[in-house]
Structures are given as structure tokens and as C-alpha cells.
Amino acid sequence: MSFLVLIGLLNWALMKSAFHSKFYSTPYFDILNYHLKNLFSLLNNQISGLSGPKLDELLAKMHKDIKLHKFNKLTNIKLSWTFFQAEKFKSMLKIFQSFSDLKTLTIIFESLISDKEMEILGSQISKNFHTLEQLHLDFENLSMVTDYGLKSLCDPISRSATQLNSFSLELQKHNKITRTGFEKCIATLYGSLNKLKSLNISLKGDPNATKRVDIAHFIMGRYPLPQPPTLVTESQRKVNGEIFQIFGCKAKRKLPYLENLTLTLKNQGEVMEKSYKIFGCEISRCMPNLKQLIIDFSESLEKVTDQSFKLLGRQLTKGLVHLEKLVIHFKNCFKITDTGLQVFTHEIGANLPKLNTLILDLQGWSNITDIGLESLSYEICKPKIQLQKLTLLANNWNIIDRGIEVLATEIVANLQSLQYLKLSFASCEKIGDKALEVFANQLNKRLANLEHLILDFYGCQHISDKGVQKLMTQISRRLLNLNHLELNFAHCEKISDKSLQIIGQEIQEFLLITLLALDLDFRGCYKITVEAKHELQHMLRNIPQFSIY
């Protein structure tokens, strides 16, 4: 009964929406997609208690309603599903036969899934989605899936979805999948989906698993495997880097059209040094036309050394002459020193002439000093690169002020095209007012294109009102085209109400006309009163987007 009631309500809603929208307009399709999600959600609840003829009757009704309400004209569907039994899962997937024009399909599998469901999914995709151009599959719990299940999914996709230009595969808690299973899956996809322009592969292991298998050698897919599978206990936290190397080793077939590549590895353990060289070399060799590369190996790099990082930098950047955006998330690399950072950033500056966006998430590199930051500044702030967007997350670095001064000097001198700048020195305990002063003194009107500035000094307890005053005076009077400003001074305990007064006065006098968004964070600054925050809010009430914490 509830299903029929909802259908009636959707009839009314769709007719009303169609009255106000042109049928094939984007808003109308958004409405269809919204109501389609409601239908699938209700069907998901109803189906758990049905079987046989009653189930067939419900699915037939669903097919009819899809056609009646023009759902079959949808080209983009995104659904989150929770399933119950494999056979009912199969029945539900048959509904997709109604969508003859489907171009983009995104499915998030929230619950536990087995080999049988993976096999059904692969089969249905191969039968019904010949026109599909973008496919995104996110499996949140694969703890019951084995190599067979992964193969049953990847093989049909590679055979039938030959028109795909964007493919995303996110696998979480893949405890039973071995390195052989990953190898064959990746090799199959690379061999058949050679028209891909965008590829996202994300492998997130279960951090609570008692055993993990390291599968690093072959995301690019080299045969034969260099060594047998290695099962390692969580307490040892030692694996030989095979997951890492999967992304960098085989691709006998190139992916000449690939422009966007995203690789994520989490909870996979330690990586061997030789893996970095293989990874970098094969990426640059097999994907020569990459324009965007995003690498997130944050939780697999605790024991990476200078030598590993040098190998990665030298090999990765050699052949990527078309690269425009590079995003590196390498957190908590405790063993990397100034030398390793200098070599890596030198390769970026020397070999990527078309780079316009650079994001370096290097949080937790506690052995990096001002020398390392200076080297980084000289290498990435080169006139021939002309970055438009730069993000550097240097949390917990062992720096004082000299490196920050050099960084500001090089940015101002060489990056006149810069539009977006984000610098984070959170928890750099030695940073104080002097660092803010030398940074501010380097700012000038040569950064005329800078529109978005984010500065994060969270937990820098030596910063006081004096430093904030120096910084704000230069920002407000020299960055005259700034329209978005974010400042984080949370837990800088020496800062008081005076800093808020300074910020309010400087912005009101110099930036009030251009500034569209202002975000201030003073949480944990115990000398700042609630009254001062309210006064600042009132003073800057004309800024369209203003928040203070």
C-alpha cells in the first residue's frame, strides 16, 4: 500500500514540476533523479519481504512507472543501495534495462556484498549498459569478496563497456582479495578500456584486520610476480610494498587518451624502496598525456626514506610534459629530510612546464627544517612554471622564520599569475610573530591576480597580537583584489581582542568592497571574548559570507 501511495504522490509532483520546467532541461532531470531515488529506496524496503510472483509483480510495476514518468530518459543516475539476497539483487538490477539513454551511472554499495552479488553486477552491466560513458562503483565493505568476485565484476565490464571514458573503482575492506586478484583485475581493465580519459582507483584496507595481504607490484600490471603472496599480521605492520607497485608496473598497453588519474592507497602498510622507482617510471611511460595526477598514499608511507622519495620524483616527472595539475598526499613521512624534499621538488620544477596547479600535502614531516622549505621555494616558484594555484600543507615541520621569508619572496617574485594560495603551518611550534612579520613584508602589489588566500597557524602558540597586526596590515593594503580570505589562529593562546579589532579596521578600510568571503578561526584563544567576536561580526556585516569561530 505504501508503495502505491508514493507512486501517487510522485505523479502529482512530477506533473507539477513538468508544468514549470521544459521537459529536457537539466532541472527537470534533477527532479526525475530525485524521485527515482525515492522509488528505489522504497523498492529496496519492499523487496526484502517478497519472493516469487509478488516480487515479479512489484518489479513489473516499477518498469511501468519508469516508462510512464519518463525516468527512462535519464542520462545520469546516482544511487546508494543496501541489498539483502543475491537473487533479489539480480531482480532489482534488471530494472536498469529501462534506461536506454544512460551515460553516467554511480552506485554506492553501503552494506556487505559477496562474490555472488559481484558476479550479478558485472553480468547486468555487460548486458544493459552499452552506451555507458562514465561508471563509478564504490564498495564500502568487501570483507567477504575474494579474487573470484573481483574478476567476475571486472571481466564483463572490460568486454562490454568499451565506450567508457571515465571509470572509478573504490574498494574498501578488501581483506580476502589477494595480490593476484588485483593484478588480473587491473591488467584486464588496462587492456580493454583503452579509451579512458579519467581513471580513479582507490584501495582502502581494513585497519582492524588481523591479516593483510600486500599487493603492490602491479596496479600497472607486470608479469610474472616477483615473489609469492605475503600475509602479514597487523602487529608487525610490515609489508613489502606490493600494493604500491600494482599502480606502477605493467601496462604493456599504454593508455594514450588518459588525462586524469587518481590513485588512493590506505591501510596497506610499508612500501619497498624499489616500488617508488617502478611506480614513477611506469606512470610516465604508459600515460604520457596525463593532465591531472592525484596520488594519496598517506597511510602507507611511515618508513619512506629520502632515497625512495628521490626515485619517485625522478621517474614520475620525466615523461609527463602535459601535466597541468599535480596533487600529492604523503603524510607522516618521518624519515624524509631536507635532502629528499629538495630533490623531489627540483624534479617538479624542472620537468613539468605546463603545471598550473600544485597541491603538496606533506603534513607531519617533522625532520624538515628551514633549509628544506627554502629549497622547495626555489624549485617550485620558477617563472617558467607560472602556477595559478598553490597549496602547501607543512604541518608539524621543524621551521622557524627564514624558510617562510624565502617562500614569500619567491612567490611574489616569480608567481605573478597566482590566483589561489593556501599555506598551512599548523603545529609548527617554533613559529612566532617574526615569521608572520617576514612573510607579510614580502607581500606586494605584484600579486595582483591573487583572489583566494588561506593561512593556517593552528597551534602556533608564540604568535601574538603583534604578529597578527603585521600580517593584516600588509594583506589589506597590498592584496587589493582579494575576494576570499581565511585565517586560522586556533589555539594561539597569546592572541586577544586586539587582533579582532585590527582585522576589523584593516578590512573595513581597505578590503570591504572586494572581499566576498571571510573565515576566521580563533577557537582555543582564551583571551578573546564573545563580545569582541560579536562586535567584529557587526563591523563586517556587509561581507556576503562571513564566519568567525
Would you mind describing this structure in some detail?
Among the domains are: 1-102; 108-300, Alpha-Beta Horseshoe (Leucine-rich repeat, LRR (right-handed beta-alpha superhelix)), CATH 3.80.10.10. The protein starts with a helix and ends with a strand. The strands form 2 sheets. It has a 15-stranded parallel sheet with strand order 1-2-3-4-5-8-9-10-11-12-13-14-15-16-17. It has a two-stranded antiparallel sheet with strand order 6-7. Mean pLDDT is 76; it is low at 1-32 and 209-252. Helices cover 41% and strands 16% of the residues. Helix 1 (2-20) packs antiparallel against helix 2, helix 10 runs parallel beside helix 11 (338-351) and helix 16 (497-511) packs parallel to helix 17. It is of the alpha/beta class and 549 residues long. It is globular and about 75 Å long. Strand 14, helix 15 and strand 15 form a beta-alpha-beta unit. The longest helix is centred in the N-terminal third of the chain and has 22 residues, at 26-47. The protein contains 17 helices and 17 strands.
CATH domain fold name of the domain at 108-300: Leucine-rich repeat, LRR (right-handed beta-alpha superhelix)
- CATH superfamily assignment of the domain at 108-300? Ribonuclease Inhibitor
* Overall morphology: globular
Class derived from helix and strand content: alpha/beta
Record the strand order, biggest sheet: 1-2-3-4-5-8-9-10-11-12-13-14-15-16-17
Oligomeric grouping of the chains: single chain
The DSSP helix count reads 17
Largest sheet: 15 strands, parallel
Overall mean pLDDT? 76
- Give the CATH class of the domain at 108-300: Alpha Beta
Number of strands: 17
Q: Give the termini distance in whole angstroms.
A: 49 Å
Radius of gyration over alpha carbons?
Answer: 27 Å
Q: What share of residues is helical?
A: 40-55%
Strand fraction equals: 15-25%
* Second-tier CATH architecture of the domain at 108-300: Alpha-Beta Horseshoe
Flag low-confidence runs: 1-32, 209-252
